[in-house]
Amino acid sequence: MQMPDPDSRILSRRDAIVERLRGCLPADAVISDPAETRAYECDALTAYRCAPLAAVLPRTTEEVAAVLKVCHDEGVPVVPRGSGTSLAGGALPTADCVILGVARMTEVLETDYADRLIRVQTGRTNLSVTGAVEEDGFFYAPDPSSQLACAIAGNIAMNSGGAHCLKYGVTTNNLLGVTMVTMEGEIVELGGGHLDAPGLDLLGVICGSEGQLGVVTEATLRILPKPEGARPVLIGYGSNEVAGACVSDIIKAGVLPVAIEFMDRPCIRACEAFAKAGYPDCEALLIVEVEGSDAEIDHQLGLIKQIARAHDPVELREAGDADEAQRIWLGRKSAFGAMGQINDYICLDGTIPVSELPRVLTRIAELAAGYDLEVANVFHAGDGNMHPLILFNANVEGELAKAEALGADILRLCVEAGGCLTGEHGVGIEKRDLMADQYDPADLEAQMAVKDVFDPGWLLNPAKVFPLDVSEARRSARLAAE
Amino acid sequence: MQMPDPDSRILSRRDAIVERLRGCLPADAVISDPAETRAYECDALTAYRCAPLAAVLPRTTEEVAAVLKVCHDEGVPVVPRGSGTSLAGGALPTADCVILGVARMTEVLETDYADRLIRVQTGRTNLSVTGAVEEDGFFYAPDPSSQLACAIAGNIAMNSGGAHCLKYGVTTNNLLGVTMVTMEGEIVELGGGHLDAPGLDLLGVICGSEGQLGVVTEATLRILPKPEGARPVLIGYGSNEVAGACVSDIIKAGVLPVAIEFMDRPCIRACEAFAKAGYPDCEALLIVEVEGSDAEIDHQLGLIKQIARAHDPVELREAGDADEAQRIWLGRKSAFGAMGQINDYICLDGTIPVSELPRVLTRIAELAAGYDLEVANVFHAGDGNMHPLILFNANVEGELAKAEALGADILRLCVEAGGCLTGEHGVGIEKRDLMADQYDPADLEAQMAVKDVFDPGWLLNPAKVFPLDVSEARRSARLAAE
After folding, report:
1. In the 8-state DSSP scheme, what is residue B389?
2. For chains A and B, what is the number of CB pairs under 8 angstroms?
3. What positions does the domain FAD-binding PCMH-type occupy (chains A, B) (predicted)?
4. Would you give the end-to-end CA distance of chain A in angstroms?
5. How confident is the model at residue B195 (pLDDT cuts 50, 70, 90)?
6. Per residue in B369-394, pLDDT tens?
7. Among A192, A203, A447, whose Cβ lies nearest the Cβ of B199?
8. What are the backbone angles phi and psi of residue A436, rounded to the nearest 5°?
């Protein structure tokens, strides 16, 4: 993946820039020693690495504003970073950038149970937001697989979802307001503690904007009462298509489970070997979980089992107790780790209309066969967010390139089916060139015009989201106009 | 309420403009006879009236685009209109404008139960969206009181809520995508049929933008499975403050009713006289409704009754059967009509944090006493959307002005309490001058900069939303720059 050449004028002013940053922050919050900046050279898309000019670790919104003012003044690109768990290279540095890490900004600023909200600094991890309120019976709903590590800042940047977003929505449905610092260093408040905030809804534009428009330092999040209980049911089928049709029928029937997870044979096999969850030997597995009181769970699972039976399942097993429920989930939750033990893989992230599931699964298998590669499917089926894993052998020359080509074909298939390139991982550097498949030039132009408004110098999170040639042309034009 | 002087250059070109509009539409879709344009002289804020230059009633998005191209070319202001039910004057014409009414655009374009969505033309009424899917067991959640008449176009413009939005959210939470025509006549698609649409979320900016940014002609709406059943409970208290505290405790406890409606004594008395709902003679009444299976309803109502009892209610009555449930609701739903039989009133619409409810209710009573006026409160308490009714006698000179002054004070109180000027009725012309209380000049400037992008000539829905002097200055400046 090509990155732009670093700006030599910035590199030559490195010491002066670092000196100015030290003027804004405590001594231990500015990292410029090359041995230490290496820690920020990549995120979870580890194939691409580049150490930044420097990294800063502010503790307050005001410190973030001070840093951004300096960088704006010096014309230095800034790459915001949460916990560095991006699978799309969303926090990949350039050699001439300052990494602005929010990892030390972890405070809970306010909990308000009467208004059902929590306000946190955005360096706080996803799971520790729930941690702050669970003793009082509440939780924060979006639950990406990386929730132990990932920061709210990154969740907002990528509009993250998770296994339970079928019922509770993704980040944008649970985000009430933010404090954001613009590239100029101005502190702005967007949204607030209400269902219906005053003024134009600019909050929505920020959520999912991948650090292109500003640095979100504080967030007001909706918290929900913990359900009384939850219970999963395991349903096995003889083909992906039948399992897909069952998912489609469950949604159509109007039942609203909290999660419908889908695994196909390659994935089932790996997970079973890894987690001993007692999965049946079949082509496709669904884990469907419902929540509520015991009576409600019984009722909903009754309906779901009735629909499942109509599709002639190989296996249909309701969790008898908490232990079995945990084992059913353990297999699914360890899927990525389990796959990694036996294969190299690329994890894709696209969305499709739920109704297209059977057709898309069939077509993915055909595409994979054309490349002589295997694809394992494990994903949130209920909301159409797919995570196909393309398996390959990194030691065989040319296999990575082949896998990447197949990945691009699958994402184009998602777009063609009426879906989109990314569900929750973001575009980052990984999918920037595919944006031209999703959007025509006028659409891309409109999105870049929005960036022009928030970040006229194109200094925030460079070389991401937009096709590189397009965004570099834009950046140069803006520079020339200054 | 002052309106800008009509542009005499436009008035003098009236015949030529009408002629060009006739070139875009069938003969019966262009209304220019003054006897007929009178039908469009006001919306539900009937105190202000002004017949438009002409009115057009297109049937398709393409016809809307053709009309807007002509108006853009001629520099004629356009006022989009749904069903004309705005309580804030959101569809009030100017004498030099073309009313663009979507009332004939009522088609259902697509229903898709597997993806749980419906796509409609936006002239369709709110209730008839549910009408199109209810036989199949689905419904469209937002339910403004005017749902029999109001159009989806207006719901989107004002981001409407309704009695049930505590559980299901307001329009923005149920809107998946729109087809919009810009003032230049360009047709754009925003959002789509997914939880997580690709690209920047510009859809959020459109929802609630009161016809300032474009004309929304088609909408993709989320539909939900109809719950098995619902049951209300009626709770009476000896004071507004105690009822407010009970609401706050229900929310805090994590129960999620579909509705918590609040009525105070003046309102209870009027509704009881009108609807014979069997309401007790007390200071404050709550109607709390929960949904689900019988078992779930029993369980949730059990919790709610427990909380209610802790506040020592005057009355606590669960609906015994469907008939009683309907009678409980009949009183609430006829509240506005019942009040109108015995008083003139102004209906306000502000939001506050739920936790501030008791304090705000006390302060409203104090403010009203200061003006020697009575305020009746009936509103969606669960989500903090208040609708105080200021009662006055229109036949007494000066009472309307006094009532309007009290209304402004109450809305300022909402802002001061951390809420906002409008929950679901919008700013329109009614509250445009109060925008300066909610926002400082820089905030207003930012919102107007967004309008600059979508509608550079400031032709769409003039004299609304922004304080008149500010928006007129902006409009003149843009005209001069052309």
Report:
1. E
2. 180
3. 48-226
4. 29
5. low
6. 999 999 988 888 888 888 899 999 88
7. A447
8. -70, -20
A324 bridge partner residues: none
Residue-wise burial string across A316-336, b where 16 or more C-beta atoms lie within 10 A, e elsewhere: bbbbeeeebbebbbebbbbbb
Mean pLDDT of all residues belonging to chain B: 91
What are the structural domains of chain B?
A: 8-101 (3.30.43.10), 108-225 (3.30.465.10), 228-342 (3.30.70.2190), 343-427 (3.30.70.2740), 439-481 (no CATH)
Residue A18, amino acid: V
Parallel, antiparallel, or unpaired: how do β-strands A78-81 and A98-101 relate?
parallel
- Residue A350 CA to residue A431 CA, distance in Å, equals 11
Nearest to B462 by CA among B83, B62, B89: B89
| CA–CA separation, A361 and A368 (whole Å) | 11
Closest CA to B108 of B219, B184, B15: B219
Q: What is the CA radius of gyration of chain A?
A: 23
Residue B163's nearest CA partner among B304, B260, B268 is B260
Asked whether the beta carbons of residue A195 and residue B169 sit closer than 8 angstroms, the reply is: yes
Yes or no: say if B75 and B455 are a contact pair by the CB < 8 Å rule: no
- CA A172 to CA A174: how far, in whole Å? 5
Please state, in angstroms and as integers, the Cα–Cα distance from residue A258 to each residue in A187, A232, A287, following that order.
37, 10, 11
Scanning every residue of chain A, which has its alpha carbon at the shortest distance from the alpha carbon of B157? Answer: A200
Phi/psi-derived region of residue A92, left when phi > 0, alpha when psi is between -120 and 50, beta in every other case: beta
How high is the pLDDT of residue B79?
98
Q: Across the 482 residues of chain A, what is the mean pLDDT of every consecutive 10-residue run?
A: 87 96 96 93 88 97 98 97 93 96 97 92 97 94 90 96 86 95 95 75 92 98 91 93 89 85 88 83 93 86 95 92 84 76 84 86 93 90 87 89 94 92 90 90 89 94 93 86 73
**Total residue length of chain A:** 482
DSSP string, B239-264: -HHHHHHHHHHHHHTT---SEEEEEE
Instruction: Give the Cα separation of A339 and A388 in Å (integer).
Output: 12
Which stretch of DSSP H or E encloses residue A223? none
Please check whether residue A423 is in contact with residue A365, taking contact to mean a CB–CB distance below 8 angstroms.
no
Among B162, B118, B128, which Cα is nearest to B142's? B162
Q: Which candidate from A254, A293, A351 shows the least CB-CB separation from B295?
A: A293
Question: Given a cut of 70, is residue B196 above it in pLDDT?
Answer: no
Match 């950038």 to its residue by tokens.
A97
- 0.90 surpassed by complex ipTM: no
Whole-angstrom CA distances from B53 to A185, A240, B8, B330, B465 are 47, 61, 11, 41, 22
Cβ <8 Å between A254 and B424: no
Joined together, the tokens standing for residue A471 give: 């965004």
Please tell me which of the candidates B113, B251, B353 has its beta carbon nearest to residue A193.
B353
Find the helix packing angle between B357-371 and B399-416, rounded to 10°: 150
Counting Cα atoms < 13 Å in the Cβ hemisphere of B122 gives 31
Query: To 5 degrees, how large is the angle CA A340–CA A422–CA A78?
Result: 90
HSE of A204 in the Cβ direction (CA atoms, 13 Å)? Answer: 25
Cβ proximity of B398 and B437 under 8 Å: no
Cα A98 to Cα A6: distance, rounded to the nearest angstrom: 12
Residues of A in contact with B162 (CB under 8 A): none
